[in-house]
Amino acid sequence: MVEIDFESVETTTPFREASLPTASRQDGSYPRPQMLRAEWCDLDGPWSFRHDDDGAGTAAGWSRGFSGGPQIEVPFPPESTASGIAEPDFHPVVWYSRQIGPEELAAAGHGDARPRVLLHLGAVDYRARVWLDGHFVGEHEGGHTPFSFDITHLVGGAGAGQQHTVVVRAEDDPHDTSQPRGKQDWHESPHAIWYHRTTGIWQTVWLEAVPEAHIARLRWTQNGPASVTATLQFDGVVPARAVARVKLRWEDRSEDLGTASVEVTSRRVDVTVPLTRQINGQAESELVWSPEHPRLIDARITLTDGDCTEVDAVASYLGIRTAAVDRGSFLLNDRPYDVRSVLNQGYWPQSHLAAPSRDALRREVELIKALGFNATRIHQKIEDPRFLFWADRLGLLVWGEAPGAYEFSPTAVQRLMREWMDAVERDASHPSIVTWVPANESWGLQHVAHSAAQQAYSRALADVTRALDPSRPVISNDGWEHQNSDILSVHDYEGDGAVLARTYADDDARARLLAGMGPAGRRILVGGAQDHGQPIMLTEFGGIDYQVGPGRDDGWGYTVAATGEEWLERIASLYSAIRSSSFLAGSCYTQLTDTLQETNGLLTEDRVPKMPLEQIRAAVTGA
């Protein structure tokens, strides 16, 4: 085992025109990295906490606040040791309480210019209800997506020194298989491929002050190589003759790229900015984003009133790149690109789905790249946006994947569809995300091979993803039983490199794979789906169990290596088989880290390479 010395990278640069940070050079702490304001207040840290197993909290008036008893360290889930609670048993209802006052409001920028106060919650699993000073302010369902409430009417007239109490009640039924839950176990203790549950708050809670009329949402769309569109949504009463202005700048070369303005005539406007430098096709690639050259464009978006006075401003960033499929290849920037990915559970032993620190999110990206991968598949989890920022910034392709429910029912369909649509909307502007995966291994679609209803649901999930974002390929059901997939993905844990090489050797092998039963005994195509020459990728393979140190008695993998040398040889053999294939367009190794009883990672659960990192990289890349 070896420790890693990571190269430091400058992460802060003042924005040239105002106090706003330069979005592409931020330090990774802002919870919403593609729409920054200059001031915000982090509410992570100690909160009062209570379990409510018998449901007594509402009648007991806990919504008005409480103190005493245990403290929890937000945003770590109560099942984790990092939270200070460390109670992994079944507790379907939990409560949180915290004081906020003038200091927090001032840190958020609350004042005459920004009188409105928003309370943001990055993710609360699974159903949340929120109060301020005993007043109900709203609720949200969905364990992986953010939500916000305007609490101005409750804090706007506060006198000097007045304190307010925020209360959050989270409900997460461990036995409700209609909830999108990903890898969270319904057993009391983790078993097989499932892990400890993550209940309640697991991403940052924060305050932000905004003007009466303000920019509420922002999404970037690329229109070919020579223009981009910012779709802006506003809240509040927008002044008459208001103007939205977008200015783009490439800080790497201190180069202004373009500016555009439009009159705001509704709550939603599109501002299209021509990128005149891109008209020169010979120089077009200088600005393009890729893992090898993760070039980001900074943006400043302003809202001005009829007198040209600035009402609101946010900083953002974007990347110019395309992702598509054609003629059996995955295309990045319209050129075939060999996707070399690693499966990432996004799980830490001390903090579960929540990263143990913000720096850990950056380190995860750095580790993946150092191991020789150019992509990662975030498995059964909608990851913290700050991970996506570092993927954008440092250059790593990401497959965005929905956390699956375990049953097929009207409730499960509605819940997953709603949460997945929110996730696509949240993350569609990140250049690192190049593929959407709304379902995995027929979870919640166990009978899709024969059920017309489940086939309709599978098609609908893929099609609604394309409707929300037509700019990326969609995998309808990763692993097997595809219908309208842009990529045909296969899961194959064959441990013998020679056998793997024969399975994926040539066009005859490709035809046999698609016409017969897949490696897991599941059809690759169902519901009348046809082979249209889509790219085929081996999106789960490997999973070799190799334990260092004392090891776990219950540790397992799909195959076992007795020594580090044998482990490296077998990884190299599997990758040699993949490279010898005439048709595989990409691959995804299982997995990045050991995760509880799954001891099949390239790294230990503490993110330490099991053999010297350069040797693992050589086995993966063949170089």
Please estimate the helix content.
10-25%
Q: Give the overall shape.
A: globular
**Rg calculated over all Cα atoms:** 25 Å
What can be said about the biggest beta sheet? 7 strands, parallel
Unreliable segments of 5+ consecutive residues: 1-18
Spatial strand sequence of the major β-sheet: 26-25-24-23-31-28-27
Report the oligomer. single chain
* Overall pLDDT confidence: 94
Strand content: 25-35%
Q: Which structural class is indicated by helix and strand composition?
A: alpha+beta
Number of strands: 31
Number of helices: 10
Distance between the first and last residues' Cα:
21 Å
Provide a descriptive summary of the structure in words.
It is globular, with a radius of gyration of 25 Å. The strands form 8 sheets. A 7-stranded parallel sheet has the order 26-25-24-23-31-28-27, with helices on one face. 18% of the residues lie in helices and 28% in strands. The longest helix has 18 residues, at 410-427. It contains 10 helices and 31 strands. Helix 3 links the parallel strand 23 and strand 24 (375-378). Helix 9 runs parallel beside helix 10. By secondary structure, the chain is an alpha+beta fold. The model is unreliable at 1-18 (pLDDT under 50).
Question: What descriptors fit this protein?
Answer:
623 residues; alpha+beta; six-stranded antiparallel beta sheet; 18% helix; disordered N terminus
Write the layout of secondary structure elements.
Layout: E1 41-42, E2 45-51, E3 71-74, E4 93-100, H1 102-107, E5 116-121, E6 124-125, E7 127-132, E8 135-141, E9 147-150, H2 152-155, E10 164-171, E11 200-201, E12 205-210, E13 214-222, E14 227-235, E15 243-250, E16 255-263, E17 268-274, E18 297-304, E19 310-318, E20 323-326, E21 329-332, E22 335-336, E23 339-344, H3 358-370, E24 375-378, H4 385-394, E25 397-401, H5 410-427, E26 433-437, H6 452-468, E27 488-491, H7 497-503, H8 507-515, E28 536-542, E29 544-545, E30 559-560, H9 564-580, E31 584-590, H10 613-621
Parallel strand pairs: 23-24, 23-31, 24-25, 25-26, 27-28, 28-31, 29-30
Antiparallel strand pairs: 1-12, 2-3, 2-4, 4-10, 5-9, 5-12, 6-11, 7-8, 7-10, 13-14, 14-17, 15-16, 15-18, 18-19, 20-21, 21-22
